[in-house]
User: Fold these one by one.
Assistant:
Number 1:
Amino acid sequence: MINKKIAVIGIPGKWSTEALADALEAKTGFRLVVDMADVTADLATGTVMANGNDLGSLDGVVVKKITETYSPNSLDRLELLRLVEAAGTRVFSPAVNILRLIDRLACTVTLRNGGIPMPETRVTENVEHAMAAVKAFGAAVFKPLYSTKARGMTVITADQPDDAIRTAITAFRAENPMMYIQRKLDLPGQDLGLVFVGGVYHGAYARVAKGDAWNTTIHSGGKYAPFECDADVVEMARRAQALFDMDFTTVDVALTNAGPIVFEVSAFGGFRGAKDGIGIDAAALYADHVLDALS
């Protein structure tokens, strides 16, 4: 046994959270799963407590999931982990690095500035400018800035009357004032997740769409399958994830007629895709990485 006390931030009872806690417990004999809803920070003393446990007194904290669904509140929860880091506890991945990924726009701007190929994207608060984007793209995916598994995404096509386009855009804008608009790509019924631990590539899986679903997420009935990536695709994904310096992540990639593109780098990465798609025990790999970093 390795004498380290490492907590897992996640959703108690959820498979990926418990799998990571299991992997760490098997190697250290210590188990602590923390729901951020149970955390209290005392800024006067700099302590961050969770059910009687001082997170700043631990050897490490691994963030598997900060909340069930992304929202600006997720950013507030990450700010509390900055206090844990200030107390001297290593957080995997660092809170500031995760912050730049939860907000879809922050992730996109970083990838664009890093020269990573992405789908054509426009961002605006103006309904008329959003209409122009729909007409330019032919079909556009409107994406909330805080979402996962395609939740809240809306496809708006140009082959309908202007009034219908404007109505759809206005409805989306009511919940998403800053509209993130991406050209809907003609994909081959699948996209890819490339797995990285400590910046090292460990394999790729495909998410295969169910029937005529426009997205490939498991939430929409997709399934995982193994996939062998060409070296240039792996290198593109490696460059993308290196911009964020994550301890564990997956890079979402699509293969298009114009070449491979990156959709996003994940704030937390998927254990299930790695396991079901390519038989990789990502929880064990991540636990080994964490313990190596703390040794």
Note: The mean pLDDT is 93.
Number 2:
Amino acid sequence: MGWDALPLVDAADDRPLIERRAVVRDGFYETQARTMIERVPQAAGIAQRWAVSPYRGCAHACRGCGARAGHRRLGLDAGRDFDTRIVVKPNAVARLRADLARWDGQELAVGVTGDCYQAAEETYRLMPGVIGALAEAGVPFTVYTKGALVLRDAELLARAGAQVAVSIAFVDERIRRAVEPGAPTAQVRLELVSALVEAGVDCRVLMAPVLPLLSDAADQLSATVRRIAGAGARAVEPVVLRLPPGTRAWYLEWLQEAHPQLVARYEELYDRSGLPSPGYEERITGQIAQLCQMYGMRCGPGVPRPREPRVAQLALV
């Protein structure tokens, strides 16, 4: 593999910040992480408040991804650049071990700023080390992914007592092609759930994001929950689409082209921070909860297994 080092230059250099600080390797931007445990934005809609992400940006190109704004801080745009300019943290495992030495044991999410099992993981193989570090520290964690590559690490995840949340928001392939063009099909992800359960992994489905006026009809929700239950998932965690800064403009640009009649309704439905109307959100999550009850699944965030942090034994003197 060829290397192209991009040196730091003077302030007159108008290239994006990441291009001035990174090393480019086969199209990926490598940068050394100063910390691996980062705060999860409240708008993400998941239970964990802290996360570990070996990658920033995501080739799945999901239009409603709430992590898009992070690329702006790198001097890139939150749209096409987020989908195609993937930032990698090659020192992720070493930095994580250092962070965990001072960690208080709170549960961590893995893969928030970019899917940890996207194509970059095939090249860098960071996740086995990340899983190992978290398991050794005794920290509970949940891996969020759409990627079938997670099956490679199923045995490691099962031994670590990790939870895996596979994202399946809808089963309509036309919608998937429009808003998740780089992600595996819903059928592939349903089969992934079955395979993870078979491998002994504590697996649930993150039914996110439910798209207002596009994937929220009663028959759509029912079909999705029914097929999730059929795949063997034990629980469903529903999250209605969030549109924080960075995501909002990219998503609404697509909506204006594909469904212009819905734009005004979205403007009414979402507040300035990008959160949906509480009444709408409660109605949708309530419907999903009823469907989960019908199919014998728990509805809501996962419950981490209690784990005792593994710390070095002090010598008696």
Note: The chain has twelve helices and 13 strands.
Number 3:
Amino acid sequence: MKIVPLLALTALLAGCATAPPEGPRLDHSLTARAQSDRIKYVILHYTVSDLPRSINTLAHGSTVSAHYLLTDTNPPFFYTLVDESRQSNHAGYSSWKIYNQLNSASIGIEIVNPGFKETPQGRVYAPFQQAQIDQLILLLKDIVRRHNIAPGNILGHNDIAPQRKQDPGPAFPWKQLADAGLIPWPEPSRVAARLPGYQEQLPEVLWFQRKLAEIGYAVPQTGELDQATRNVISVFQTKYRPSLFDGTPDAETAAQLDVLTTPLPALPSPAPAPDGN
């Protein structure tokens, strides 16, 4: 019988043993310049239900969710339901500018609010608590700072889905967000200056469609005042002219669209101070 040396036998057995799994070799010393934050948008919603049902739907349901849920308690606070690094299912079929299906590129914030009720006098929208809006502005400022969100990218669910959504509705105080520097707003004096011209001669429907698309809305470009176009105009009006949002392309809506799509020219840089030496 051939005797295998002990050292050779040990090596042979070691080679037959399964090697422990190794992870990938990662070098974190380089960072690409060509990259950006995944989060481009913040989308605001109302829950159309009370707090317990909102929690049940958004936290325990298997269909929809949101990153944040703003309560209607006293004082209000946010439930953090989905980490910002992960996608929540809040936007659904949606579109804004070059983006479709905004779930993957947005943070969703749900606000506890009953929405609206039908009355003999028509649909009545519930107001938002001022304390809720105060909390919302604080969170939005923090999100904007951390993700460098552009002012035109804080939107309502109805902005990105105007054919099927109404929230956060005409009772939502968008002007307070504008006053906080979070969203653009048509400057009233510029609107007033353009209003007489549009009262005298209203643009064609295609003009309205093109201006709405320039802002970001998904709107037909047919020149026809169809229901889809009326729906988009109505959504625009709920934000900037909530006193009347019937979807009619009128002079005030035209003036607001004109101002929003015609930014003021940048002021020239001041001349350098003369050298006193």
Note: The mean pLDDT is 91.
